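MODEL INPUT / OUTPUT PAIR
PAIR INDEX: 1
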Amino acid sequence: MEKILIVHTNYQNIGGEDIAVKNEISFLEKYFQVETLLYSNVVKNYFLQAVFFLFNKNINSMNILEQKISEFKPDIVYVHNTWFKASLGIFKILSKKKIKTIIKLHNFRYFCTKSFLSKKHLENKSICGACGMKSEKVGSFNKYFSNSFIKSFFMIRYGKKYFEILKNHNFDIVVLTNFHREFLENLDFKKNKLHVIPNYIEIDESSIQVDRKNIIYAGRISKEKGIDKLIDAFLKSKLQDWSLKIYGNGPEYTSLSEKCKKIKNIEFFGEKDNEEIIENIKESSAVVTATTLYEGQPTLLCEASILGIPSIFPKTGGIQEFFPPSYKLSFDPSNFDDFVNKVNLLGDLDSMKKQGIENQNYIKNYLNKDKILEGFKNIFYE
């Protein structure tokens, strides 16, 4: 049995990627001998962390990895998020020890931080589909974090090096969608090193009930997630006897929750654990996202489909790959009226129940565990 060491740095605020990694660990443990190395992004010594940022390697994290490898002796190291505690120094160890290494990309951050120049980031586009940066709001410096030059500087130092590692080292790269694979191919990544394996999701199915008249959003409350547009579309819709429930936290939470304080059918619940959100999805008629960004795999929407609950989402990135062809509830992100029209479609409850069944059948086949396992075996044993 192959021995797999899974390496991941947990985010300070738990998000979809952390949940996906947790689910994937549980999945792989059924078929392989798995050990995990999970770093925490809690900073105890800011001066020392600044030094680690400057050199793109964390000596403590590298030592922990070396010790883990010495004890477990893995055949394969499977790496998820390295920002920032794991650091890029771990790849130096993996290359030196010549251990087969697989990197899973859950997002497009490596692209947005590959240069100090905003011109090379945006590539003559008015907006970056990966992070939402707009050309009219930036100078010559690629200010990835709009509120901090220092954080942006360190992030880009990291991103430039990470992009080089991804492109030029002989590591296998796993992405979640065909859209992402084609994105990397257009950046001249080695085609034979790119693999598409979506995240496996395992939750109990429930009887399909879409007559609750509740719409749910769960995720980060930030500008690029389009929550303000979602609220406006809901208020303009014909579903004023419905309710919109928003779960999550982020920089826009306070301003948006204050804005909606006097609107009785819009509620903000703050950050909740995934189990509680799943239970609330079961009691909803639909879930919705209005993100302006390329997405990896929309965890919330996939979970809703497994439960037979329809989703509304923009036609961006690879989201559509997780839904049946000619899906009726996806909208043009540049057309606000189209968004409102798709919200209005939820009022046809019989049609939505049929759509929920169609989504459920499609996602069960798309995320079939045998297909996903075969994908891993093809990489592990090649």
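PAIR INDEX: 2
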Amino acid sequence: MKLFISRFSVMCRLGMSEEEVIDAFRQEKFPELEMTEGYLPGGVKVPLGRVNVPFTPSGSGPSRNDEMISQAVSQIADVITEAKKRFTAERVGAVIGTSNLAVSEVEQNIVANSASPRQLCYDARLSRIGDLSGIFRKMTGCGGPVYTVATACSSSARAFISAARLIEAGICDAVVVAGTDTLSRIAVAGFESLGVLSLEPCLPFHRSRSGMNIGEGTAMCVLSHEMLGDRSTMLMGYGASSDGYHISSPEPTGTYAAIAMKDALKAAGLKSSDIGYVCLHGTGTKLNDGMEAKAVAEVFPDVPASSIKHLTGHTLGASGILSEFICSLVARGEITLPFHPYDSADVDPVIPEFCLVTEPDTVAGRPYTVSNAFAFGGNNAVLVTGPCRE
């Protein structure tokens, strides 16, 4: 079955729409991550991929995530409307990937309602990952299945897989796929406590990399068995695996990540030589980059590959769909390949060698792309994207 991906709505550090992100790549002018206080104790500044979405929390009303989702829906409202007209609302579903929903509002609620650090109190209704589905249904008018996927940093890539299966099973004709996560002190401090947060702009796969930067973002598209609107690409195939190696550390050999990549290629009916670009998960940590390098060197040793985490920060549950968005732009020929801002001689010599992009490049006649998303607990998801073909 052919699966078409509509144009995207997007809000991230790179831009607040498809057009803004495309323009940033064409001009090679990328906003720097913002050095920010207030997320770590002692006034320590940390680089963050902040998004300019004004929001004043009410304490009991919508969260900042809700606001970002609402703005993202408005960017592709015409595509969602077209899907409902063509298939009826009952045949249009939605799957939303997130890992960190409303945590910042929970933090503020705890501070406002707790008598002391030993007597913490907060409104549990604010911590509602699943409730995003109900809010999303009201925003979009989707009458089919609507649910939330929360598998940490692979959440929105997994949302694509869930959406594809809803269509392949004949349950839906079209599915809105979304991913969203916003900044919170708990997330930033949590990664700092794991020793994987960098206080400098991150450098994935660099010999001197010191960890990740956290970002925030929202992206959305419509997946369907028929083309909807312009600027479409195709989801050619997908693969997934779960190694269960450790609650937070990746399986070090990259075996299960490679399995997901091979399964995605097989599902797409493609060979590694057909792929023109791999959007890496590439967080900038020693363990993640080392594991992914082993898997990519095995499956895609000669394919140009790069991460976007140094441009957006690690957007956690939204990172999968943002990588897929970049892959769709590459497959459509809208942008050159994302590149790492350092010389190839500075790539970590300890990791296996592969084709890391360190200067502007194109897919050179191979328009098929791959995006990787790897998460805590060994939850791996890989998507293959290509240009539209009737």
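PAIR 2 NOTE: The chain has one domain: 4-387.
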